[in-house]
Amino acid sequence: MKPRIIPGKELNGFIKGLMERAELYAPKERDTSPFPANPASDENPPALDAAEHSAGTPPVNGNREVSQFFRDTTEFRHITDPAQVNLDHLNTKLPLKELFLPRREVMFTFDTDTPERVEPVEAVAAERIVLGARPCDAAALEMFDRVFLDEATPDPYYRARREKTTIIGLACNEPGPACFCTAVGGSPHGSAALDLLLVDSGDRYLARPMTAKGEALVAHLPEATAPDIEKAAGLEQEARAAMKFTSDTAALQEKLKAGFDHKAWDEIALPCVNCGVCTYVCPTCHCFDVTDEESHGRGARIRTWDSCQFSLFTRHASGHNPRPTGRDRLRNRMMHKFRYFPAVHGTVLCVGCGRCIVECPSGIDLRETLTTLQEELE
Ligand code: SF4
Ligand code: SF4
Fold first, then answer.
1. 210: CA distance to ligand 2 center in Å?
2. pLDDT digits (tens, 9 = 90+) for 47-70
3. Fewer CB within 10 Å, N or C, the chain?
4. Residues with Cβ < 8 Å from 230, sequence gap 6 or more?
């Protein structure tokens, strides 16, 4: 498939074309004022940290030295006006996963007196296009696919969203200080799970189609020239070189096999308060809870994000908890990402987006944790 060119830095015409084809989702500034103009809704969720993000106040997170580089005030939202699209931020506050596994979703509703009266809920009604997915977030969807599109038990809600969504990525030319995608097999110009990848080349975008769906979006545009392609390759090299952290994840997987009871976990887990933020902002964490809620004879089965960092996550009805301490739970998070998931699926469950590093209130840096484990485990 031939790479194309979107001439000029003005993307408005391209964005308008996307909006005519399907519902468009893209990074959009959140309304984080203490008094939002509109009531909270799916389109405009309540600001959880309004005080911190009021005008002129930089975000305050655990790792201040890296958080100052992130204006984590955008989220993927439905776009109704091209001016709402904000592609200037590196990462959205919450990852792309919320468009495929929503924070909270009604799976079906029912009548409590006549349980056979179950009404299905359609996961997604219309075709969707996502614009501005960063390569790490998109790569995480390939990991979700292994879980939710498993042949034996595919998840129909997730599958419907995947099938009805075309994903346009945006390459990272200037990775942030917490980014380390190259250490976990990714690339700032990676194309995993994308239909089309845009590369900002200064006065134009290189548009590289990966699938027929992506090609259909740019087939009318002029073909890229050899210098366009060379320039994009140079930008990728520069971006890769900007990320210094490396990790031998294959060797770590072996060490973790024998390191379950190693004393290193005590030191690593000490600062963790098990708030679960790292799992909620992680594009690859995918645990959820399912509950039935009922009122006045009507009920709904609801799926919500859950976190292995909470003690209730594994507590049995008997009261026994196989992971009773914070140390057990942090170790499980690391083991799942760097030992169990690779053993089953052949890839680590981390794309190096750095969100957990930026957002952890205790200042835990996953790169330091990986280095400590590499050095201390035999
Ligand atoms: S590592 Fe940090 S963000 Fe994750 S649960 Fe512990 S304190 Fe919270
Ligand atoms: S573990 Fe941290 S760096 Fe890795 S994908 Fe999740 S949030 Fe990003």
1. 25
2. 333 333 333 333 334 454 555 445
3. C
4. none
Ligand 1, closest atom to CA 274?
Answer: 5
Question: Which residues' Cβ are closer than 6 Å to ligand 2?
Answer: 281-284, 337, 350-356, 366
DSSP symbol at 194: -
For the chain, the domains span: 1-30+73-102+110-244, 247-378
Pairing of strands 4-7, 204-209: antiparallel
Q: H helices of 319-365, where?
A: 326-335, 341-345, 355-359
Residue among 263, 265, 370 at smallest CA distance from 326 = 265
Pocket flag, ligand 1, residue 278 (CB < 6 Å): yes
Identity (one letter) of the amino acid at 164?
A: K
Percent of the chain topping pLDDT 70: 88
Count of beta carbons in the 10 Å neighbourhood of residue 210: 17
Q: Which of 200, 107, 211 is nearest to 165 (CA)?
A: 211
Query: Does ligand 1 lie within 6 Å of residue 358's CB atom?
Result: no
